[in-house]
């Protein structure tokens, strides 16, 4: 099994080649150990931190930027994004305020990434 992925750990964006040999993974193309760890994790348990926007009422803008406080398993990303996109909040909102608690039972919250005052 050979898998190619672009590393997302740092701005370099190394092109990784991940090979499985017996019960071990060999990562090539990484310029640092963080890239090696990313490559192995990407194959064994892929996950993502999500950034998006929710609808905002009573504020100076119509959408509020949000992000997850931790990683979401890759297989749940689409379902999480549907929940995030359908969520509405009302101003005022504080930076870091929890918008969605424990999304899909993952133990990860969705929080606001900026402060918004009420109109």
Task: Give the topology.
Blueprint: E1 2-6, E2 15-21, E3 24-28, H1 33-44, E4 47-48, E5 51-57, E6 63-68, E7 72-73, H2 77-85, E8 88-90, E9 98-100, E10 110-112
Parallel strand pairs: 5-8
Antiparallel strand pairs: 1-2, 2-3, 4-7, 5-6, 6-10, 9-10
SS content category: alpha+beta
Cα radius of gyration in angstroms: 18 Å
The side-by-side strand order for the widest beta sheet comes to: 8-5-6-10-9
* Residue runs with pLDDT of under 50 for 5 or more positions: none
Number of strands: 10
Number of helices: 2
> Which percent bin holds the helix content?
10-25%
Strand content: 35-45%
Helix and strand pattern: EEEHEEEEHEEE
Global outline: elongated
Distance between the termini: 56 Å
- Quote the average pLDDT: 95
Largest sheet, in brief, is: 5 strands, mixed
